Structure formats: C-alpha cells, structure tokens
C-alpha cells in the first residue's frame, strides 16, 4: 500500500500519518520525491482497510501496489534513484559510472597495475574479487581478507572507490569494512539471508541478476535489501542462461528499459560475464550505454593469459582504453556523459 501526501501537507500532518501507521502495527517507509512525499506501508495491510487513512488531513490518496515488490517500484518512488558511492561519486544521474578491474585480486603488483590503468582509462571504481564463487571447489577461491586489504590500498593510491563481492553472511562486517560498494553475485541473488544482512548496512549494494532469474525475481531480491532500510541498491544485468552457447550467457539488453519502467533503481551492465569473451565486451558495453544503463562493470587484467579466473573475457588495459573511448561516443549520443 502506498500513501501519497498532498503537495502542501504539513510536517504535523505527515507525522500524524506515520504515527497512525505505526499504531496499526505496520512499518512506514518514506520516499521524499521532488513533487511530493510518498509513504510505503509494509506489513499485513488488512488493518488499513478497516481504518481508512484517506480521511486524514494531508493525505491525497491511498493506493494498493499490485506488484509483488513495493519499495523498489516506480509507484513508491517516481524519481530515479541516485546512489551516493561516497567520495563525491554518484550513480544514476547523467554521468555514467564505470567499475573496472580484475575478476580476482591475485597479488599486489597486478592489482596496482590494473587499478592505475583503469583509472587512466576513465573508470571511477575498482572492481576485484577477494571471495570468489567458483564452479569448481579446486579453482582459485580468492585471497580473502588479504585481497580486501590490497583493494583498499590500491583505492587509496589511485583515488578509485572499491566494489567487491560478499559471499557469506559470516563475512558481512569484514567485507563492509574494506568495500565502498558490496557486491552480491549472480549465484547469491536469492540468498535471502545474505540479502537481509546487506539490507542492514548503509553502504551501496551492487546486486547482480541470477543466472536464471526473471526480472520480477530480480526486483524481489532487491526488495529484500530495501525492506531492511538500505535503499542504496544498484542492479546489474550480467547475462542470463538461454539455449545459446556461443556466448557464456545472453546479455538481456531489454532488462534495462523494462527495469527502468518498473523501478526507480539504477542499472549497470556487465559486458564481461555476459559475453564471456574480450571481443564482445566493447559491442555489449556500447549496447548497454545505448539502451540507458547507468554504468558498466568491466573486467581488465594486465596479462589475461595468466589470469586465475575469467582470463578469456578480460580486457588488456589498452583495449579498455579503446572500449571506453567508443562507449563515450555512444553516451554522448544518448545525452549522457562517461
Ligand atoms: C564477478 O563479478 O566476478 C562475478 C563472479 O560475477 P557474477 O556473479 O555475475 O557471475
Ligand atoms: Mn569474473
């Protein structure tokens, strides 16, 4: 249920509505828009049917949200959300944000080399996994806290922000201590306990779409995080499983306009994991920018041949520079900057 306040509603009227909602045992979530204030009501809504809130002064209308997700919906928040990444960087506005770096943090030298290269190429955020979700238990699992420390050091040396994956509820505080943005990977998109935990944080969360998740399931996963009070969620389309085997996954480009219609949350595109080959990164990045994505997350490695994970899809630093140059032209064509 959402309660739309009149444009001229007073603070007292607003406080009264909040008090009434709480008195009914429901949880109010406030969305302060440019035009008006909207209150989302979370919890069993039957109480509201018995005690209508329309009659309270300052209330314009009370509407049910028919979609299964509420707080992520455009009905709840008509304006686009802009997520503050700290350090003066914001994601969701005219300026696109590029996150780039290796799939895994492997050692100090390669991380620093990559961080400097992606910074030169125009990225604002350094990516790199310290906890790796690998299909095989015998594959490299990540440097764990040592990797997080290296990311923080590389960020300090370059002025980049850091995004890194959190795999397990036991490591929430550890990862949050080092990361500016906490990544929830595709394989954990429906790890509901993990989603609730990052919902308790007040740090931005990059939520990747599950390998076989529908857009509704994706938005419901985001709803878990918002329902705990963390509204700083960035959605990431990273390709889904289809019958096609030429690419690692199929980049669902239509997810961007569909999500933009249904939700206020920003969306970034991952052209690396979707295509699965460095050759497709540029074209898919361009497509993402053209279709309205708010940012890109791209894998870059100084020597992809020796990469401990995802070498085939990693760009050489010099290729990253040319991919960025092309994507910048597309951004300009659609009225954005990159
Ligand atoms: C990654 O970003 O390195 C990663 C593991 O991505 P995904 O969860 O999309 O597979
Ligand atoms: Mn990877």
What topology does this entry show?
Layout: E1 2-5, H1 11-23, E2 27-32, E3 37-42, H2 46-50, E4 59-63, E5 83-86, E6 89-91, E7 97-101, H3 108-121, E8 125-127, H4 145-158, E9 161-165, H5 172-178, E10 181-184, H6 192-200, E11 205-208, H7 215-227, E12 233-237, H8 255-262, E13 267-269, H9 271-275, H10 278-290, E14 295-299, H11 317-333
Parallel strand pairs: 7-8, 7-14, 8-9, 9-10, 10-11, 11-12, 12-13, 13-14
Antiparallel strand pairs: 1-3, 1-4, 2-3, 5-6
Bound molecules: phosphoenolpyruvate and manganese (II) ion.
Structural features, described:
By secondary structure, this protein is of the alpha/beta class. The chain has two domains: 62 residues, Phospho-2-dehydro-3-deoxyheptonate aldolase, domain 1 (Alpha-Beta Plaits), CATH 3.30.70; 251 residues, TIM Barrel, CATH 3.20.20. 35% of the residues lie in helices and 18% in strands. The strands form three sheets. It has an eight-stranded parallel barrel, surrounded by seven helices. Strand 11, helix 7 and strand 12 form a beta-alpha-beta unit. The mean pLDDT is 96. The protein binds phosphoenolpyruvate (PEP) and manganese (II) ion (MN). Phosphoenolpyruvate binds next to loops.
